Amino acid sequence: MAPSRPDRRAPAHLGRDRRQSAFDALRDRRSHSKVTEEAPDRKELERLLSAMNSVADHSSLRPWRIIELRGKARKKLGKALAKACDGDKKKYIAKAKRAPLLLAIVVSPKKDKIPLWEQEAVASGVAHFLGLLLDEAGWGSIWRTGSLTRTRPVHRAHGLEPHEYLLGWLYVGGVPERDRKPKPRKPLDLSKHLSAL
């Protein structure tokens, strides 16, 4: 029997009203390295992605796309990771199956006067905002990358065009009961991150 679905009206681990401020949502977001076997369906993903038209994007190029990996697609990724490093196939398949849903974040640059680094920044913004929205909707996620992310076997496994490349994956699933409490974070030393000219 599948575990009960968290209440989607608010982040399950926060127990707060869904209409919290953007500041509160960002402050309280956390990564979940372990998730349950539940995941948002395609309709919910489409709803979350529809908000990405507000990501800062010079010339509105939309130089990104998302690829869903569920079920056997995760095994295909695991095999590609193993091939990329001549590693243990079972080990990398297990790594790819750590969540029921993987969202590959793809940089899909457009030929334009806008430099590549700026287009990549847009795709990165999409990844971070999507993680925040998933958290707000009550799902657990974690951002994963690594040295194999941009290897040829992994590129082929995702069916990417020659000019496209991966930033990484959001591993997404349900929030385990033990992770539903707020997790304190070490405060920022703002003197290291904020200055003036």
Please render the helix and strand layout as text.
Layout: H1 22-28, H2 42-49, E1 64-69, H3 72-85, H4 89-96, E2 101-107, H5 116-136, E3 139-144, H6 152-157, E4 165-174
Antiparallel strand pairs: 1-2, 2-4, 3-4
Outline the low-pLDDT stretches.
1-16
Helix share, percent: 25-40%
Task: Please report the number of helical segments.
Answer: 6
Query: What is the residue-averaged pLDDT?
Result: 90
Task: Give the tally of β-strands.
Answer: 4
The helix-and-strand class reads alpha+beta
Order of secondary-structure elements: HHEHHEHEHE
Can you tag this structure with a few keywords?
disordered N terminus; globular; single chain; alpha+beta; 197 residues; 4 strands
